[in-house]
Every structure is written in C-alpha cells, then in structure tokens.
Amino acid sequence: MKARVQFYAQLRDLVGVSQLDVDLPEGATVRDLLDQIYAQRPSLRGHDKSMLIGAGVEFVDRNYKLKSGEAIALMPPVQGG
Hints:
With 81 residues, this protein is an alpha+beta fold. The chain contains two helices and five strands. It has a five-stranded mixed β-sheet with strand order 2-1-5-3-4.
C-alpha cells in the first residue's frame, strides 16, 4: 500500500521536500512508516519524541494502522509566543 507523508515547518526543511510517497505492506502502522522514513532521512530521527502525527483531521499515535492512500502529516510541536 502507499501512504503520502506531508512534512511541515522545520521537518520540511530537514527533509527537503513537502511530501513523500512511501510504499508499505498492508497492515502497516505509523511506527512502521516512521522507521522507513528514518532509514531514508536519518536527520528526522532526532525529532521523533516531539513530533506530532496527524491522519485526516485527528492526531494519531504510532500504533495507528494506516489505510492505503492515506495522507499522514508530520509536524513539529506547536509553539506560541
């Protein structure tokens, strides 16, 4: 199955693209997706603990099962000022 990953703010700057299509086996979770992305883009691993993950209009955790064609948003924590 294929998932589209969208990167925001400094995560987009680290990766160098705003979105990336990733091929995964059926039944893959967000954790599986992140492991594959970190293998390709190791600079993102340092942001793992603080990264917000969205599927549709909801935040999800790393055990969330992905659906084919789903868009997953990876965002840094919200900062105010």
